[in-house]
């Protein structure tokens, strides 16, 4: 793709225009029908030329001067033309030629035709006298053609130019100039003032030198093609105020709809009266899941501790920073425990007396098994909850979740397309609105709803969490004569992520250090030197070893897979018809 050159490009293009001729027909409705005939002198090795048009009008920031029906011929024959956009949708570019072949050296003629609507401006535009002028003021002027008949962006030297204007009525004042601004204004020759045919001629024009004309006409100023904002905003807002209003309305409606779907997916929290034990038959992961409909982060650790507390396994600490889980319980004991606890035991192969599983920071195979087990826990818990009738699937919430995810994907796609194409960024707003309004639909629990049984279990599980995690007097637990319950509830406190608070609650209530459980590393029930189980070295070492094993496995997987606005007087380059061209 030939890029539009910056105005600071040094030196002229290697191709020269020996004769620049243009025929411009202007209708009373403000449409310019253009035919540009360029006689060019080519050196060897060039593929063709490009022509670009600037849609901005320096005198009217709301006007859009877009070329339509662009056709090009080379030496009287068709030639490949690729239309594209540059600088968002400000510059329309025609790339002319074949990238797989070059134009032979010598003289070649390009004929470019196109149409542009809205070229006539109010008479207040471009008043001034920095130009060659001629006029016949028999009738008052109602509009003007203020136009760069040779665009200021042509990169080639031009030997001479001839421009013929066919107007919708006899002209009054006619002005023309060459160069950019009053300081560099040069002469041009005008013929035909007071008639409907005006001819302008110039001599040699250096590269990037415009020829600008201002013709006063006794024709009412027609409506122009406009946008409510400056051209710099077109890439984001498009060009239609009505389209923007429709998009904003659709965005609001979709955001409101998604918000309603989000609110309908929420469940009112039941009362959570303090309870002093978990619901009967539920392990720590199930109890925590019922309060949030999400498997807790420390579910695997909590379950392994629960197995040991129930006498199904023992946990022993090795000298090399490893931990060994040894099966103790028989088949009947494992059958009597909850589904999650049994699943973890089966996955690690410790449901038979004497069976062992060892994990440490360097045990890659054990880490793989631990990670696999941890990753499967959500599905296991979900099946359990549906199996006992504690929750049911809600298809409408699942559909809402999918719609939010798809909206987010569409937002990214449309946003990307708007950057690399003329599609305005506003078309991403409806997707953004739905994704924002329905953000809550991608949180835990959406797509499932607790039944009456589930809400009852939620209430009791939530009340048990309150007892474990709060230190208020009304939630105080009577540990007198029941010290064993402190250690029995440690796995639940781990699942609820409140083991430290549970230990402090024990110490505050009894005035004694929290005991270490006898089932963890051979503890004897004495006070923990680490300030209770929640911060004890045995527990932190056990969890660290499990995390280290999983990390060791993950590391092997990673290493194996890395592989301007209106106003001002008449001057050169100040009118519509900006653009230019060059060769490539």
Automatic annotation (TrEMBL):
The keyword Acetylation does not apply. The chain crosses the membrane at residues 241-261, 398-420, 426-447. Residues 556-584 are annotated as: Disordered. Residues 16-216 form the DUF2207 domain. Keywords: Membrane, Transmembrane, Transmembrane helix. Residues 276-505 form the Predicted membrane protein YciQ-like C-terminal domain. It holds the Pfam family DUF2207. The keyword Glycoprotein does not apply. Residues 564-584 have a biased composition (Gly residues). This is DUF2207 domain-containing protein. It comes from Aeromicrobium endophyticum.
């Amino acid at each position: 793709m030939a890029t539009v050159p910056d105005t600071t490009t040094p030196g002229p293009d290697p191709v020269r225009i020996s004769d620049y001729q243009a025929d411009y027909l202007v209708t009373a409705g403000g449409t310019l029908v253009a035919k540009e005939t360029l006689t060019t002198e080519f050196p060897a090795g060039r593929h063709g030329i490009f022509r670009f048009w600037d849609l901005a009008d320096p005198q009217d920031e709301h006007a859009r001067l877009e070329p339509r029906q662009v056709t090009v011929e080379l030496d009287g024959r068709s030639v490949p033309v690729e239309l594209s956009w540059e600088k968002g949708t400000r510059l329309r570019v025609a790339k002319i030629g074949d990238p797989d072949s070059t134009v032979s050296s010598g003289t070649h003629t390009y004929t470019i035709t196109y149409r542009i609507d809205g070229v006539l401006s109010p008479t207040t535009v471009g008043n001034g006298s920095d130009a060659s002028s001629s006029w016949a003021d028999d009738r008052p002027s109602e509009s003007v053609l203020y136009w760069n008949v040779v665009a200021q962006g042509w990169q080639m030297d031009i030997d001479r130019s001839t421009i013929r204007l066919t107007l919708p009525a006899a002209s009054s004042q006619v002005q023309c100039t060459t160069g950019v601004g009053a300081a560099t204004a040069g002469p041009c020759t005008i013929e035909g003032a007071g008639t409907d045919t005006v001819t302008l001629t110039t001599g040699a024009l250096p590269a990037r030198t415009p020829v600008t004309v201002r013709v006063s006409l006794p024709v009412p100023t027609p409506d122009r093609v406009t946008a409510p904002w400056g051209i710099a905003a077109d890439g984001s807002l498009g060009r239609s105020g009505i389209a923007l209003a429709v998009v904003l309305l659709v965005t609001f409606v979709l955001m409101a709809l998604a918000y309603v779907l989000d609110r309908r997916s929420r469940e009112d929290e039941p009362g959570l009266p303090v309870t002093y034990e978990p619901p009967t038959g539920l392990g720590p992961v199930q109890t925590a899941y019922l309060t949030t409909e999400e498997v807790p982060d420390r579910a695997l650790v909590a379950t392994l501790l629960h197995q040991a507390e129930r006498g199904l396994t023992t946990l022993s600490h090795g000298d090399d920073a490893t931990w060994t889980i040894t099966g103790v319980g028989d088949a009947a004991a494992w059958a009597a425990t909850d589904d999650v606890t049994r699943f973890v035991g089966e996955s690690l192969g410790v449901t038979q007396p004497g069976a062992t599983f060892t994990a440490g920071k360097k045990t890659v195979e054990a880490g793989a098994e631990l990670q696999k087990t941890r990753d499967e826990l959500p599905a296991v818990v979900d099946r359990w909850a549906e199996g006992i009738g504690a929750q049911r699937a809600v298809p409408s919430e699942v559909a809402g979740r999918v719609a939010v995810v798809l909206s987010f994907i569409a937002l990214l796609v449309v946003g990307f397309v708007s950057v690399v194409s003329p599609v305005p960024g506003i078309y991403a707003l409806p997707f953004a609105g739905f994704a924002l309004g329905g953000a809550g639909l991608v949180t835990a629990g959406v797509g499932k709803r607790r039944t009456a049984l589930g809400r009852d279990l939620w209430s009791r599980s939530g009340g048990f969490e309150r007892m474990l995690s709060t230190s208020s007097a009304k939630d105080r637990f009577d540990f007198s004569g029941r010290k064993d319950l402190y250690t029995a509830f440690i796995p639940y406190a781990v699942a609820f992520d409140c083991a430290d608070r549970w230990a402090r609650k024990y110490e505050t209530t009894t005035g004694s250090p929290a005991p270490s459980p006898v089932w963890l590393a051979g503890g004897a029930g004495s006070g923990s030197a680490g300030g209770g189980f929640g911060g004890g070295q045995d527990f932190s070492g056990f969890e660290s070893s499990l995390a280290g094993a999983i990390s060791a496995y993950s590391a092997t997987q990673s290493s194996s897979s890395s592989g301007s606005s209106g106003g001002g007087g008449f001057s050169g380059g100040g009118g519509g018809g900006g653009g230019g061209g060059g060769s490539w």
